[in-house]
Amino acid sequence: xxxxxxxxxxxxxxxxxxxxxxxxxxxxxxxxxxxxxxxxxxxxxxxxxxxxxxxxxxxxxxxxxxxxxxxxxxxxxxxxxxxxxxxxxxxxxxxxxxxxxxxxxxxxxxxxxxxxxxxxxxxxxxxxxxxxxxxxxxxxxxxxxxxxxxxxxxxxxxxxxxxxxxxxxxxxxxxxxxxxxxxxxxxxxxxxxxxxxxxxxxxxxxxxxxxxxxxxxxxxxxxxxxxxxxxxxxxxxxxxxxxxxxxxxxxxxxxxxxxxxxxxxxxxxxxxxxxxxxxxxxxxxxxxxxxxxxxxxxxxxxxxxxxxxxxxxxxxxxxxxxxxxxxxxxxxxxxxxxxxxxxxxxxxx
Length: 349
Hints:
Elements: E1 8-15, H1 19-30, E2 35-38, E3 52-53, H2 55-63, E4 71-73, E5 75-80, E6 83-88, E7 94-96, H3 99-113, E8 116-118, E9 126-127, E10 132-134, E11 137-144, H4 151-155, E12 159-162, E13 173-180, E14 187-192, E15 197-204, E16 207-214, H5 220-224, H6 228-234, E17 238-246, E18 251-253, E19 257-258, E20 261-263, H7 278-291, H8 296-321, H9 329-335, H10 337-348
Parallel strand pairs: 1-2, 1-11, 2-8, 5-14, 11-20
Antiparallel strand pairs: 3-7, 4-7, 5-6, 9-10, 10-11, 12-18, 13-16, 13-17, 14-15, 15-16, 19-20
C-alpha cells in the first residue's frame, strides 16, 4: 500500500486493547497469524461495567487460558419495593471479577500468545484490495475493537448513529462505583428504581460494585437514595475509587464488514447493558471474526447468530424499562418464576 506510511506489517491489526480486542488477538495467534494491537492506554484498563461474568462467559474466558480471581455468582435477583424474584443458575456459578483484574489477565495472555501491543491511537484508515493500514501499521485485516465510540466504525463508513437519532428510544448511560464492604449475597442483585436499575456485583471478599443504568443526567448518589434496601447496605461503606461513567449504551452499525475491516464487540453495535451479556457476546464475536477473516458474509451471519437472542431480549427489557411498564417488570418476574428463570438461564449460557 504505497503512501500509507506503514512502518510495521502484520496479518491482523487489532484496534482497541480492551477485553474483546485482547481476546481477538489471542484467537488470531492461535490461528497462527501475526497480530499487532493498538491501545494507547496502559494496562490494566478500567471501565464502568457490571463486572459479573455469567456462567457461559466464565467458560469462554477460561477457554482463552485465564481464570481471574473474583467472587462466585450463583444467580440473579430482581428486587423492587420489597418484591424479590431470585433464580439460581442451573449449570454452575459465574463470577464477579474486577474489570482491572480481567483486563490484566487477558493482557498478559495476549502477550504470552505472541501478540505485539503498541501504545498508539488509530488514525485515518487506508485500505485497498491487498490490505489496510492505520497509525503506521499495515495488515491484511483490521479488527475494530475500539468500543462504543469507535473511530474504526466511522473511518470504515459503518456508523449508523446512537439511540435517539431518528428513533423513539431514549439514550441510556452507565455509572459504576465500588464500595469496601463484605458481600451479603452470592447473587447479582438488580434493584429496579423509579428511573434507573442498579446492578450489585460482589467482586472480592471485601468489595462490591454497584453499576447504575439510567437516562441522561443520572446522578449516582441521587439514584442510590431511591433504592432504600441497597442504600442501607452500603451506608457508611468506604467508596473504593471514583464514579465511572459510560454511554450512550445503544449504538448501531450499518454492517460489520467493509473491505478488510471487521467490527467486533461494542464497536459492531450495542443495545444496552441491561442483561449483562456484552462480554460473552463480544468474546463469541472475537472467535467468529478470526474464523471468517476471508469470508465477510460468513462473519455477518456468525455475528447475527451470536447477538440475535441478546438483542431481542435486551430490546424488550429496555423498552419496558423506559415505559410506564417499568414498575411491572419485577412483579411480573415474581408472578411467573418459571418464565423469569428461563430467561435468566438463556442469558447465563
